[in-house]
Amino acid sequence: MNMHERLIEALGADAVKTEPEDLAVYAFDAYSQALPPSAVVLPASTQQIAAAVKVASDCGEPIVPRGAGTGLCGGAVPAKGGVVISFARMNRLLHLDVKNKRARVQPGLVNLELSQQIRSTDLFYAPDPSSQKVSTIGGNCATNAGGPHCLSYGTTVNHVLGLEIVDARGEVFTTSIDDAGYDLTGVLVGSEGTLGIISAIDVRLMHLPEAVRVWLAAFGDVEAASETVSAIIGAGIIPTALEIMDDVIVAAVEAAYGAGYPTDAGAVLLIEHAGFADDMDEREYAIRQIAQDHGALSWRAAQTQAECDALWAGRKGAAGATGRIAPNYYIQDVCVPRSKLPTALHSVTQSARQHGIRVGNVFHAGDGNLHPLLMYDKRDRRQVAAVIGAGNEILQSCIELGGTISGEHGIGFEKRDNLLLVFSTDDLAAMGKVRDVFDPRRVLNPEKIFPAGVGCTEVKGGE
Amino acid sequence: MRQAHEQGDALFIEGGGTLRGMGAAPSRAGRTVCTTALRKVHSYSFADLTVSVGAGITLRALRLALAEHGQFVPLDAPRAQHATVGGTLAAGWLGPRRHFYGRARDYVIGTQIVLADGTLANAGGMVVKNVTGYDMSKLYVGSFGTLGVLTSVNFKVLPASPCTRVFIASLPEHSRLRATDAIARLSVTPSAAFWVHGFRKVVDGEDGPDGRIFVLHEGSAALIARASRDVRTALGRAGVPETQIIDTGASSSFDRVLDACTAVIGQRSVTYRMNGSPDELEARLRSVYTAAHKSELAAESLVDLMNGDLFARISGKDAHAFSERIESFDDLLHAGAPRAVVVASDSPIRTALNVWGEPPVALERMRAVKAAFDPQGTLNPGRFVGGI
Description:
The complex is a heterodimer. By secondary structure, chain A is of the alpha+beta class. Chain A is 33% helix and 20% strand. By secondary structure, chain B is of the alpha+beta class. Chain B folds into three domains: 158 residues, Uridine Diphospho-n-acetylenolpyruvylglucosamine Reductase, domain 3, CATH 3.30.465.10; 98 residues, Alpha-Beta Plaits; 84 residues, Alpha-Beta Plaits. Helix content of chain B is 29%, strand content 26%. In chain B, the strands form four sheets. Chain B has an eight-stranded antiparallel β-sheet with strand order 13-10-12-11-15-16-14-17, with helices on both faces. In chain B, strands 3-4-8-6-7 form a five-stranded antiparallel β-sheet. In chain B, strands 1-2 form a two-stranded parallel sheet.
């Protein structure tokens, strides 16, 4: 039997795609395009995932797990073909434990749907990447996804209590942060599908806050807005979210959604504070004072839930809205120490200008996590080259400021070679040891994370 | 370490030695590496809310350095004046404020470690969001010194709350369940809340037959005022006669409770830690006291109401009686609470006990991780889960 036949035998025909026109779309994710896979399977259970892994592994094919494909660095595309495992049929909340504030979910459950399904219990799932209407919990775990509320609530890994994993040999094991021994949960989250396939996740839930306020401050430019953010954090105030958008992005957002942002400002700062009602007025006063001290042109408090929702929808839809003003865009994901934000932004503006590239800025200012959107037309090779040049300069300047090359999107395929800008070969060799334990033959999502030729040096002979 | 590695010598890693009562007996003899000289604050950017320290710095010294700028890391462990950052993290110590702030591992944004063969490896960095390869710091935290020696740790820090208040009350047995339940449900969540039975002199220097409840609140003045009203009402309704409030000295009160978690009674006690959900606490308590009674040993308990942790100190009237009876207690306890872990004992019988409880499901994979990092088994050999 060939591989297609074996997959169909193991999972049933309706769980396996083999026709070229069906496979073609799986060569893409939100960032990139690679090879079409040899087959796509849509398992409905952990056992089916394991069966698919065994078949693929026997046939010598790599395995590429895929959530919603919203990743921005080629993490879900088959760099070497192989079998894509899609979790589209494993999208349920399996068990909810309200008293202990936890839930068990399948990897294909959409992030926002989890919070929506449990809303009546007064609980929510905190990590909120901007893609949350579409992205899945499994995919979020693979990239340790962030989002605006990570400022106060932490990233995905801080909300994962345990995992069920199908390993490279098709064997199933579970991890829990309450297990004695090594924190395998902690190292599996953020491993971008290269150590194991996540087949179930135990997540931590939180109580919905007692009170939430959303404020919007307008500034003449992003530098003033980011200086305000640095000052707020420096004053020991950590709001629940601190997001900045510049005028380029705001214009696109308003044209697309009419969310209520002022289009005459150079930059806007969206601030949310969630917590106890007793603290709200004092918080607002303190933050507003700092904003005014740094040149805020206006200050507005959202009055209704609808207004809050609209402002957030605008922010989270920012990248999508950019599609209106440029045929293509390249989103970076650099993170710098918060006090270096104004300098980092200055470098972004400089590099973009020098390369003649239009840039928009939307970012998690409170975390120092910048997302410059470099706009171009991919049909123009000079523009493509300019974007690559500007992108590399921005990366370099952020590293020089003590920052990193990926705050939340991950390394995927796109940033592999940049890893050596922040780590030595010894540092990467330590990671390679973990890979050797879980996937010595490099069948799981190959060509991701590690620079070409690195991370293979630890492979033991004879495997 | 390179030298030891070349000679195949075993190395035992020690910080302040405050958690020496954890772990199994070494599988062979070796030399000790002490990390306490690595105690500098390498860099501290209070505007960025990040700090980088030598792993040998004590929790107390770190706390003081951060307090100068009104900041802290929620790293709560016994004997903070001796406990090192590296040791506390390597032991995977879970503090009582984690339900509120998150675990210690959630605050580690970067590490430097020396591996078994002397290689220096860095992980993470100095930024609070970082997805660049595997999060190796997560592997090192809780690895009990078996994968390498932590030499440097980078933390993200938090601004300290303006106000801290501790409430203490004597808790007669008939009020206990209602009171502890009411405290766990307060709308202004306590940072920490304990019920303590025994552990003489732990809370405020007094001895007494009753248990005591201890509640820590941190927040703005307005929030503390509201919390105070709620705590008094809740305890009053539960039949608790009076509540003592401590403002200045709240943090040393809290430290004393932490210290109690690993306080030993000569060589005639052992303290177990049993984590679990708060709703199962009552059942766990009962099984501890039943097992102690059957084994003719005394039991004291320190219950973390917010996380559901139970620390039980089991003691005998003298070292001889203790060592005769403790193994049978150990068996009884683990029959009902398979995951109970030993966290403190100065008795030589300690190493005969089931100190790590039930092994984790993924133990074989953990062994493989150990083999990848330390193929000769030179670092803390035999001390960890499953004899790793």
